[in-house]
Amino acid sequence: MKCLVCDGSTKAGLFDWHRFCPSCRYESADLAPVINEAGAHTRVDELDREVALKSLRAENFKVIVDLINRLVPVSAKRLLDVGSAHGWFLDEASKRFDVVGVEPDTAVAERARDRGLPVRIGYFPDVLNQSELFDVIVFNDVIEHIPDINRALQASYDQLSPDGLLVLNLPRSSGVFYRIAKVCARFNWHGPFERMWQKDLPSPHVHYFNEKNLDALVTRHRFQPLQSRHLSSLSSGGLLERLRFVGQVHPVALYTQCLILRCAIPFLKLMPSDIVVCTYRKR
User: pTM of the full predicted structure?
Assistant: First the structure.
């Protein structure tokens, strides 16, 4: 199978659904999204997911909006959030921009709409008019879920105004937790690696990048790399709920893991982060 990034030959990975490129280190998964299929939401309690993720996401979204503000002119007004989910990024970005969200998960999108957020239900770019232009397009924990990533990147170029900004916030394969998960998988403990890929969830990851191979892919679509910044991948807020959300764990083990991670957070901040935000200018 040909590598998405460098056109080299990929090799079988740790499982029959996992592959990697030995040349550029891009990784992929043969996992299918089932976002709006019947029974998909029986696998995920969105209320639990909201409690588990909101604290960390809100913290990182403030950093991302601040980064965007430093990279766009004052005249930049329109911002598109692709995969806007519960609308947390829209909440933060709307303090500065005229925002629009796109969300394919009907149930999640309707909840955001109920809060008065401007969310279009459907897939990017299908729910947009071809003539619509945005000064900023953001993918927060989304681009790694999109099977046809080349189409998404080309559509981003087409829907951006001249000199527009593309922002990709995503997990990175060189992060400490991903590396630990790979080691665990090699010793037959599959759970951490499967959780990193969100296997068996309605929208699993199908790509894993590092900054170098991501830049190589995005620049093929006529974007200029600007800045990248590592983001927090763990915070004390919502930590217990996040551990509870990612799998069935005995209560004693759950609280033990939570205690260990809370104590380890200051040290983990010194390790390679598992989340990166990369920015690109339309050329």
Answer: 0.89
